Amino acid sequence: MHRYFAFVLLGASFVLAASCADDTIVQTGSVEVQSNPDNLGDFQSAQTFSVVTSDIVPPESFPDLDDNQRAFTDTVNQLIVEAMQAEPVCLTFIDPEKVTDQNQPDLWAANGVARDANGGYAYECVGGWWWGYWGWYWDSCADWVPTYVQYDVGSLLIPVGLPIVGDPPPDLIFAGLAQSIVGSGGDPETKARQAVQLIFAQWPDPRTCP
User: Fold this and answer.
1) Statement: residue 2 has pLDDT above 50
2) How far apart are the two ends of the chain, measured CA to CA in Å?
3) Which residue range is the domain that position 183 belongs to?
4) Which of 21, 128, 131, 135 could be a cystine partner for 194, CB 3.0 to 4.6 Å?
């Protein structure tokens, strides 16, 4: 079954996935999507898809995940399946275990998760005394004091590509990247669901499902 491996999953650690939906709900960051216009014909002709799972990936190519991380990856895969069967994608899912040389999907999807530390400066307004024309006076915001803040950034990458033909890596024709500050409002599955939906909302060949 390992011969049907299509992508090397990116990242080796657990992530709280992101979306750029209503910040009052999930307080997340950004979603970026890229597609190759030269592959528009591949989008238009595609009817089926499958997803890369740990069951079909060679052990040396799959990140070393614990049970919780693997469960989250499986959850994201299921969200991808749901999104690619719904509008505007409307493709038919082929279970990876049913993929054979004769039963290849038109497109493969995968998910890569990662988590990294980032940082920046937050500025706090502080008061102070100033000498003015009428003497000393108190200014409640006399100065801005910078404070360095470190935070975790979670990333969710979803690449979609054509089936492998021969030894070269697959031709990626679509990819979405969602990022968020880990721990900012919303549970991980809610963030992941909204991220996946926002990514596939930008599918280059929008369809109406039967």
Assistant:
1) no
2) 32
3) 2-121+152-200
4) 21
Rounded to the nearest angstrom, the gap between the alpha carbon of residue 74 and the centroid of all alpha carbons in its chain is 14
Cα separation, 62 vs 58, whole angstroms = 7
Residue 34 lies in a domain: yes
Instruction: Write down the mean pLDDT value for the chain.
Output: 74
- For strand 30-35 and strand 172-181, is the pairing parallel, antiparallel, or unpaired? antiparallel
Q: What is d(CA 167, CA 186) in angstroms, rounded to the nearest whole number?
A: 41
Q: At 194, which helix (H) or strand (E)?
A: helix 188-200
User: What is the C-alpha to C-alpha distance for residues 16 and 152, in angstroms, rounded to an integer?
Assistant: 10
pLDDT per position as a tens digit, 152-206: 667 888 999 998 766 566 678 999 988 877 666 667 788 889 889 999 999 999 9
Question: For residue 83, with 0-12 CB atoms within 10 Å meaning exposed, 13-18 middle and 19 or more buried, which class applies?
Answer: buried
Q: Which residues pair with 124 in a beta bridge?
A: 145
CATH number for 48: 3.30.160.670
* pTM attached to this predicted model: 0.69
Query: What are the C-alpha distances in Å from 58 to residues 101, 166, 169, 210?
Result: 17, 17, 15, 36
pLDDT higher than 50, residue 8: no
User: What 3-state class would DSSP assign to 56?
Assistant: coil
Q: Is there a domain that residue 130 lies in?
A: no
Residue 15 within a domain:
yes
The pLDDT of residue 123 is 61
Encoded amino acid at 30, one letter: S
Tokens of 90: 């409307």
- DSSP single-letter state for residue 164: P
